[in-house]
Design goal:
heterotetramer, A: alpha/beta, Pyruvate-ferredoxin Oxidoreductase, domain 3, Rossmann fold, 8-stranded mixed β-sheet, 7-stranded mixed β-sheet, 23 strands, globular, B: 284 residues, alpha/beta, two-stranded antiparallel sheet, 11 helices, binds thiamine diphosphate, binds iron/sulfur cluster, binds magnesium ion
Chain lengths: 573, 284, 573, 284
């Protein structure tokens, strides 16, 4: 079983927690340790109380655990905020003011006057960097790694920023060494290092989706900022000129999707990125994409609703929204990446399928996944093809030709001799308005045929376990993949299998067989009604036996799953 | 004259509708400017005017009610070589589509925007539109319109639109002249095109438009924003012609970095895998 | 079995078919005949080809039949347009030019030179009124009834319009008399009259919903025109000052719903009316209504999609859209009236439930129903209560109080001493932004509780048949009610039952028992995927055995249902 | 001074944010005008400015991003007795909410509309807003803003808004003065309220606003639309004060027929069943 040290750093927005998180994870990885990190934060620019959880391990780690082994509080709200995740063995390293003894919590504490020390270096702003040094020292990260990272990060800001930061690091290492001499307990955090992972990638969900989009040949990204998807647009904006990509932050989500469809009509590989509320505004145009048979990739970062809800928290509750958005019937594809690798490969694939079937393809992710990261060896770019799926048109080209497969060869205005129509009414093969009942029937059947094709090509769920031994089967989708996987490793029972979906619509036909193998199928979802369980029931007419549902706005943890699965199983049946 | 753009279809408009003239004006102007149907994309919304592209030969995108300006901008972004004519009704443009009207002007894409302005909702059978006059009575506005009429040229000028004109379909030659200037203008060009609805607007008739409009004198300086604004603000007598022009604004397409060094439209491009590989490696 | 004479009048938009339809149905009813009428028309102002179907009978008639017994063509496209509904026995009365013999159809024709005759009266515009006279004469409607109607209809236009119209009527009667002498066949259209129905109401779906809204105490109606729901707003606008009602035709659908919610917050009974495309734009604000717990009634008139689709045609395909619109989870209610009476009563009830549970309530109707009408004896206004469900607030009023039932007493700003909050974030009882996981959980559970209450109070489906005898059961929802009912009367088998839902969400718990009684449940829906069948499966985990689906954009007819049910049953199981 | 409207809560804004002054200005103005919290409804959208109503004591409706003007209009329609202050950010009002901005002006409801204008997206962490200056660089606008800045006073004047002002939160007394006029104005009153974002806008700082603005002279005639427009069109030096006023437009509430004969708000009314019965009977 994976043993990890779980570190948490917590303080106000604006205190530079994100900087520490980013530097520390990189540093740990470069020293040969596996890391997993995930953030939780308030919808604030300054103040409030945020935290990052970093797991450090000799083995790969990919999931969120509640348990905190080491906590660095950077404000007096840190401990109250995180106490439910602390144990008697939690080691707290911080300054006196933040150790809030009045909570009468039992934990082990080591006082370090970070603020004081930072002032000595020149500004209280360096406290977080000193803390970074202390932790790095405890985990025996070579100091040079930190220095290199500091240099790289503040390159543009020049020496007057780099030098004091280096001094802060050094101060941290000094203190780290002192502490080690003083506190036996710190020894237990020592872990074997694996030089092979030093060169690993370390990516969060945002970066992975954005890179996947680039790999998918994205040429036109349009968005309106909205947590938790804003980062994707930001990332792509910064890569735009390098990749010949247009990134447009537009006036609202309605223009976003209509521009993207206009660009798609004219031949661009189009992407839009949004969240549930912004996506809601795109509903009408999603239906337009269905009618015009235009490729489009739509990333929806889920956050708890209804309405504004909890902008920076996590959920899996917009599956039904994305599945049913748009008046009328038309085929669509929905992916829900289970991990960072999936985020990359599925986004790339989304572009291909959107072009191939001329349909909207959705990537359903959530705050937890976009804000989590871990190290992984590589991203495979070898098989990238990005076929264009367009034809050079001739004089009598008809955009909406009825074909056997249901797919009409896709022409682009300005490419070939033909004219390319796009019409939002029920239309003839040439794209002319039609009120003919037969045309309507044929058009609907065209769309049904395409859905069939798509279904046949869909990604099967991943099954983990011994199909012949299982009595129970945990079923899940999207970002809970590794959380459940680790929990099942911990539970370690051969009568429990795991079936995970990263394509949630249409689901692969093998699903039926998988579900039939288990006596009791238990769905794990982060929404109050079991949306994916409903979807499965509608698609293959098998009812899920039990549901583990969480809807607090905070991610499921490995511990949650262990407890609830154990419960569900002991609750019997 | 315009046979290239002619299309042999039944036209859905009422006999006498101003849109017939508008159709002729567009087709002839394009012909006279030596465009071919395959160079042109007509982008429209929903409404009587929105049906426009179905009645002529060209590429077209007849999208949603109110969203055509966003569509048009997307088309131009993906392929600046296409000549885009964006046309729809006053309701489509200024009511459902008001936000895109505002912001498209701010982007300044090189498109020609014709508002087929009949001061009424034609397709949905006669409700008031944003440009309907105060007091205009309909089945819905039973006590008459109470909202200040939407002065689209004035709003466009207040946003420093790069080309703002008004035209009247009753005058084919002059309107062709204005339209050709709009098409040749680099940047967003608005024409508030007065076009009577014979079925539902019994106030703003051909005759009314004729009597309540005038052509701008040669002395009018379209480069002077304040002067142009004064002209536009006057709704008692509607100025026809080019009201405002700001030739100094770069177009949206010119502002798109990626076309600076490489003029190929997006569909003709491919991913540079090496660059991607390099980028991925920065995450080690 | 009901015997009816089915009359069709067909011509271009702008030829006054709607006028004839309205006058004729009233006249027939006033003479003691039952009528049913329904319209089909193109999305055009002039030209094209439209038709109205009017059924005349001694017994009540409420459903569309394909079969045409008498056709009055008013343009040369009429016969080609309707020939699939004509038989050898169809009698066509019209002028030579419109009888298009070249179609080689066999039908019985009587030439009447309507245009010529109209010219004699003063304008070809009178041809339709002459035709009206002819038909009225054939059905033996007292001429005075027509004269009265003409006078009433053209009251404002004065004598110079009334007189020639009366002459046209007289001319029609003259010709009618002549024809009867000449053509024996006309005798067979004679039907017994029932003086009791002379005083019946005659209403279409639009009027019935609008009246239902008034009965429900509507005070604020906001809309943006969109077929097929525009008529409701128009109707209400015309009644606005009389009923102290504000009708606002707003700039777009987003403002429509946000204004209506603002008005609701301030205590108005709010209504919005739209169709699938416009409704799509309201998606985000529907979710807001869920979060703010504001009452709102939303009428969605379905038309075939995706996108602009077929604006003036009919469908039942937006159930899933309305069911799932809005990010996050919140309770809602969906009604789908089955008939004109339902349209009235359910709309009234929608207002009450919206106030009571502080939720969005949807009325899902369609072009077929809003454009159909028939006579009915009365609308019962006696039981109207329109309870306000608001409280006068005191100083410490908290808008979102957690209560046992899940319902928080609803205060209105300006009524009482308290302050009233509305907040789109996850919020405390006082309406303050909160990121507390417990608050979120409690809020979700509050919404779940309300859904449970709503479910317990939902309207059971209507069952017709002998529960002990049935083997087959037709299941349907919304506007197909009478079509299926008449078809089943025709089929006349005691082993077929009929289960109809006018509340489609949440469905009543009795549904399970009903469905279990039949061996084979057959769903009838006008959409390609069986949306209501899916909903039922998700709610009660019973799979519908067969589906009869139509999606041509044109309504199911009695004949369709007879044929398809017969087929489905003979096709075995 | 403003204790009635004070609220004992932690404020979510960054230290130094312009919104603190705005909050004080609003609370004090309402107090000085002798309003009570229960008379007031603060309507807002989403953004830093949108959080406004959470930090003071009053009725409030904190709705969706971009939609607060529609909400405000609905509130007034249902109960004209409520005093409605509609406040939100530049992005919320002019980007997502642009269409409602336009059309609410046309309706002229009696509301006070404060745009807390920091020329940036605060809550979403620093993207350009419609009022950001050309060339303004952000993480997203990496090459700088290319869109013409949205001149909200000019647009409002072009639509004949009935009251248009600009204010700067750095000057509490003058801004209170302007706000009080806006509140007392009958009809839609816009204040383009310049309010620095200390976290994300390093260009338009307190200092910058101070240096780049001036107060209108007493000689300025706010009743003259063309003159007002000239003032508004000048973005190089930002005029503070009441730029335009059109006292002749009736308010939306005055135009609502049903309040002519009966001033009760809607919630206090009941259905007249007899009238309904009569109406139903017309269908016989
Ligand atoms: C989202 C949406 N709302 C409403 C409609 C219905 N609709 C179609 S055209 C139209 C208005 C037409 O008026 P205008 O744009 O002035 O065009 P015109 O017919 O006068 O040329 C409306 C409201 C629609 N198609 N989509
Ligand atoms: C429909 C929708 N789109 C996007 C967002 C995300 N969002 C929240 S606030 C905001 C912009 C804030 O800018 P501004 O209105 O200028 O307010 P500020 O924070 O600067 O005061 C955005 C884009 C949202 N909440 N809803
Ligand atoms: S309704 Fe009016 S705008 Fe539409 S086609 Fe007829 S005349 Fe033209
Ligand atoms: S981010 Fe800017 S606008 Fe938001 S609170 Fe901070 S300073 Fe104010
Ligand atoms: Mg119009
Ligand atoms: Mg802002």
């Amino acid at each position: 079983m994976t043993r990890s040290v779980n570190l948490a750093i917590s303080g106000q927005a604006g205190q530079g927690i994100a900087t520490v998180e980013s530097l520390l994870t990189k540093a740990l990885k470069r020293s040969g340790l596996n890391v997993f990190a995930s953030r939780e934060y308030m919808s604030r620019v300054r103040g409030g109380i945020n935290s990052t959880a970093i797991r450090v391990s000799s083995q790969p780690v990919h999931a969120f655990e509640d348990r905190i082994d080491i906590l660095i509080p950077l404000s007096d709200e840190a401990i109250p905020h995180l106490q439910h995740r602390m144990t008697n063995n939690t080691l707290v390293i911080g300054e006196k003011a933040f150790l809030s003894m009045d909570l009468l919590l039992s934990f082990i504490s080591i006082e370090v006057p970070f603020t004081e020390l930072a002032k000595e270096i020149g500004s209280i702003l360096y406290s977080n960097i000193i803390a970074l040094g202390v932790i790095s020292s405890i985990f025996k990260v070579e100091r040079q790694i930190l220095h290199d990272l500091i240099e790289f990060t503040f390159l543009k800001k020049g020496d007057k920023v780099i030098q004091p930061n280096k001094s802060a690091i050094n101060k941290g290492y000094e203190i780290g060494a002192e502490l080690e001499d003083k506190y036996e307990i710190l020894k237990k955090f020592y872990m074997n290092k694996n030089p092979e992972i030093k060169n690993d990638l370390i990516l969060d969900g945002t970066e992975s989706i954005a890179l996947g989009a680039i790999a998918g040949g994205v040429q036109y990204e349009c968005f309106y900022p909205m947590a938790p998807s804003t980062g994707i647009g930001t990332f792509l904006a910064q890569q735009a000129s390098k990749f010949g990509l247009i990134v447009d932050m537009s006036e609202d989500e309605i223009s976003v999707i209509n521009k993207a469809l206009g660009a798609s009509y004219a031949g661009a590989r189009s992407l839009v990125t949004t969240s549930g509320g912004g996506f809601s505004l795109m509903t009408e145009a999603i239906s337009l994409a269905g009618m015009l048979e235009l490729p489009i990739v739509v990333v929806v970062g889920q956050r708890p609703g209804p309405a504004t809800g909890m902008p920076t928290r996590t959920t899996q509750e917009d599956l039904r929204l994305v599945l049913h958005a748009g008046a009328g019937f038309f085929p669509r594809i929905i992916f829900a990446p289970g991990c960072i690798e999936d985020s990359f490969y599925l986004t790339q694939k989304a572009f291909d399928l959107a072009q191939k079937y001329q349909v909207p393809v959705f990537i359903l992710t959530d705050q937890y996944l976009v804000d989590s990261y871990y190290n992984l060896p590589f991203l495979n770019l070898d098989s990238l093809k990005n076929e264009k799926f367009i034809v050079k048109t001739d004089k009598d080209y008809q955009r909406f030709k009825f074909t056997k497969s249901g797919i009409s060869p896709r022409g682009i205005p300005g490419y070939g001799e033909g004219l390319v129509a796009a019409d939002s009414h029920t239309h003839t093969e040439a794209g002319m308005i039609s009120e003919d009942p037969e045309i309507r029937e044929k058009s609907v059947e065209k769309r049904l045929k395409k859905l069939k094709l798509i279904k046949d090509a869909s990604i099967p769920p991943e099954f983990i376990g011994d199909a012949n031994k299982i009595k129970y089967q945990i079923v899940s989708w999207g970002s809970t993949y590794y959380i459940i996987k680790e929990a099942l490793d911990k539970i370690n029972r051969s009568d429990i299998g795991f079936l995970h979906f990263s394509q949630v619509y249409p689901i692969h036909e093998s699903t039926k067989d998988y579900l039939k193998k288990a006596k009791i199928n238990i769905m794990v979802e982060q929404n109050p009604t079991g949306q994916f369980a409903n979807l499965i029931e509608n698609e293959i007419h098998i009812q899920i036996d039990k549901k583990i549902l969480k809807y607090s706005g905070y991610t499921l943890s490995v511990e949650d799953i262990v407890a609830q699965i154990t419960d569900a199983i002991n609750g019997g049946n | 004259m315009s046979d290239n753009f002619d299309k042999d279809v039944k036209i859905h408009w009422c006999p006498g509708c101003g849109n017939y003239s508008a159709l002729r004006i567009v087709k002839e102007s394009l012909t006279e400017l030596k465009f071919e149907p395959k160079d042109i994309v007509i982008v429209s919304g929903i409404g009587q005017a929105g049906k426009f592209p179905h009645f002529m030969t060209a590429n077209f995108y007849n999208g949603l009610h109110g969203r055509y300006l966003s569509t048009a901008l997307g088309v131009k972004a993906a392929n600046p070589n296409l000549e885009v004519i964006a046309i729809s009704g006053d309701g489509c443009t200024l009511s459902e589509g008001g936000n895109h009207f505002l912001h498209t002007i701010r982007y300044n894409p090189n498109i020609t925007n014709l508002i087929s302005n009949n001061s009424v909702y034609g397709l949905t059978k006669g409700q008031a539109s944003p440009t309907s006059m105060l007091g205009f009575k309909t089945k819905v506005q039973t006590f008459g319109v109470i909202n200040e009429p939407f002065n689209s040229p004035a709003v466009a000028i207040s946003l420093n639109a790069s080309f703002v004109a008004r035209a009247f379909v009753g005058d084919i030659e002059e309107t062709k002249n204005i339209l050709k200037q709009a098409i040749q203008h680099k940047g967003y060009a608005l024409i508030d095109m007065l076009s009577p609805c014979v079925s539902f607007n019994k106030v703003n008739t051909f005759k009314w438009y004729k009597e309540n409009s005038y052509y701008l004198e040669d002395s009018h300086n379209p480069l002077d924003q304040s002067e142009a604004m004064k002209v536009a603000l006057n709704l008692r007598k509607l100025a026809l012609g080019v009201i405002y022009k700001n030739p100094s604004r770069p177009t949206y397409e010119e502002n798109i970095q990626i076309y600076n060094s490489d003029s190929r439209p997006l569909f003709a491009r491919d991913l540079d895998k090496n660059k991607l590989e390099k980028l991925v490696n920065t995450f080690r």
